[in-house]
Amino acid sequence: MEYLHLFYLTMHFVNYIASTHTATVDYFTKMTGTLKISGSTTVQPIAQAAADNLMKANTGLSITIAGGGSGAGIKDAAAGTVNIGMSSRDLKPEEKAELTDYEIALDAIAIIVHPDNKVKGITSEQAAKIFLGEIKNWKDVGGDDAPILVQSRETGSGTRATLEEMLLNKESVIATATAHTSTTLLKQAVAAEKNSIGYISLGFVDNTVKAVALDNVEATTATVYDKTYPLSRALYVATKGTPSKTAAMFIDYLKSSECQDDIVAKEGYIALDK
User: Fold this and answer.
1) Which residues are paired to 108 by β-bridges?
2) Which of 67, 118, 148, 228 is the most exposed place for a label (fewest CB within 10 A)?
3) What's the pTM?
4) Nearest 5 degrees, angle CA 214-CA 135-CA 140?
């Protein structure tokens, strides 16, 4: 049976079946089975909210979600210990040989500082030199005469890998940076220390931190869509081989209008379509 289109209709989904030219309502209320999902802590809030919605609508469905970072999710999916891996970075060529990835949202890596930091913007070159340890004092980028305390994610983080790929020309964040095992912990560290700097998903930015402009461009939905913000990216889930019916339906839901409008956008991420 080939599914050609999913249409959003009065909070339900209608699935058009090519062979019979008929439509079945409530496509996502006929799910059963168990799913295990792990990986990116950036993607995790989207996946968890989607899982909560689907489990409420399907009493025979069980979905468990764990973080651990993009590297862990990709490794788990390749090993078959989870049905779906979550990633906030592109798959590497060798990973693409084993896995199929599915784009489920857009995002930006926001460079964040303490709200009391007077620096409102820096250039990409300055940001790179800060995270590489070449600029060490805020006065060198228009701030106070104070040491810059770099906060980072752990090795294996998709957000760190993307930052190093897009901003640092594949070099590593300075080894003396304080590493954190989740986006939330990194944000809390920056919020607690006036002289800190870090990087997180745009979806996690709130009033406890301040996102600075890069090259005079702020990280917003509009600048991600038009690709003027330098650290724009996509978010993914990945499966090994053809996903099971339940896993495929979960991925369909992530890409659906309901999830894109009611979860992705409301969580602060950016929907796939404008």
Assistant:
1) 232
2) 118
3) 0.84
4) 75
